[in-house]
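User: Run a structure prediction on this.
Assistant: Running it now.
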Amino acid sequence: MRQIYAAMLLSALFGSAMAQDASAPPSGARKLFEFRADGVQIYVCKPKDEALKEQNFAWVFDAPEAVLFNADGKQAGTHFKGPAWKLNDGSSVTGEVSAKQPSPKQGSIPWLLLKVKSHQGTGALDAVTIIRRVDTDGGAEPAGGCDTARTGETVRVPYSATYQFFGQ
């Protein structure tokens, strides 16, 4: 019985550690800088199956809207639909999710690892190839209240997170 308990404990520990690595940047990636984001996650009330127009509805993520702050608390840029990030120096990137894991904080959006798809402008984001979202607080989709009467309505859920920017 002790062996079974020990095996279950080890499995839980190692399984948990492996899950925590899902949003880790690839080896060799170097953290260039990070920003704290404060804003909202925007959700739209839609039928779960648009083709069938079922009577089951859900809040569907539409876009983020956040301000990025540097370590001194000064606004450094914005984060918006794309997903995209634009800094005050005029550089911007769009990304696509390559990995995600649940946030350790209940009611918070997942931690993400994103691969940069495109660059625009010239500035600090030029060398960025990977973006990581961690330390999320809030922003999870609403638990209820999405039905036929609210179809098309939006809800703005406050959130904060840390965005880390990596290059080679």
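The chain has one domain: 23-167.
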